[in-house]
Sequence to fold (144 residues):
Amino acid sequence: MYQFESPRIASYFKNSARGTAQKGVYLKTLGNTDIWIPSLNEQHRIVTKIEELFSELDKGIENLKTAQVQLKVCRQALLKHAFEGKFTAQWRARSGTSPPRRRGSQPLNDMDSRLRGNDEVGGGNDKPLETADTLLKRIQQERV
Fold:
C-alpha cells in the first residue's frame, strides 16, 4: 500500500485519470499498475530486522521497569537516611549538636502547653524557626 503514495505511482494515476467534472482511475488502470514487491530473500531480511528492533525495544522496556524499581528503592532508602539523621551525623559530631528527637520523646506536659500557646515553656527563650534558605546558608557556612 505504501507504493500507492510514492511519487512514481501518484504520477502514473494522475496521468491515467479520466473524466471531466471529477477525474477518477478505472479498475482496468488499477489492474494494469505494476506493484513492486521485494524478493523473498529481501522480505525475510526485512522481517528479521524488524524482529531485532522489537527485541531491542522489549529489552529497553524491561530495563526501564528495572530502573523504576531501583529508583523507588533508592528513594525509600534516601528518605529513611534523612529521617534517621544519617546525612547530618558527621556535621552533628563536629559541631557537638545532639541528634534529632524522635517523635514522642518530648514530655507530654511541654507539648500540651505549647499547643495551648503557653509561651512560658522553655523559659520564653524559644527562637523562631528559620526559613529553609536561611538554614541552608547557615549549614553551608558552618561546614566551611
Remarks:
- The longest helix spans residues 40-84.
- The mean pLDDT is 78.
